[in-house]
Specification:
Elements lengths: L17 H18 L6 E2 L5 H4 L1 H9 L3 E2 L12 H15 L2
Parallel strand pairs: 1-2
Length: about 100
Amino acid sequence: MSSAGVGPLSFIKSTVNAAVYQEILQHFMLPANKLFGNDDFIFQQDFAPAHKAKTTSTWFNSHGITVLEWPANSPDLNPIQNLWGIVKRKMREQRP
């Protein structure tokens, strides 16, 4: 999700640890960012253990991605919460 639009939705069926999260970033986030044609961006995430792992920080550094410092437990500042509300409503509308 960015100011330029929303990328594709991906369902992850496994538990997300740091290694899995980095695979998600590599295979989903990086290609989705190309859709918007902007390689200069700031990435925002919460403080889930996989997000704050040292290996994840190293991954972002090695890919030249700036990560926004974000306060813990601040759902009011997290724009993805609004998007999830829309997704849930659309899914309810699609149920028979």
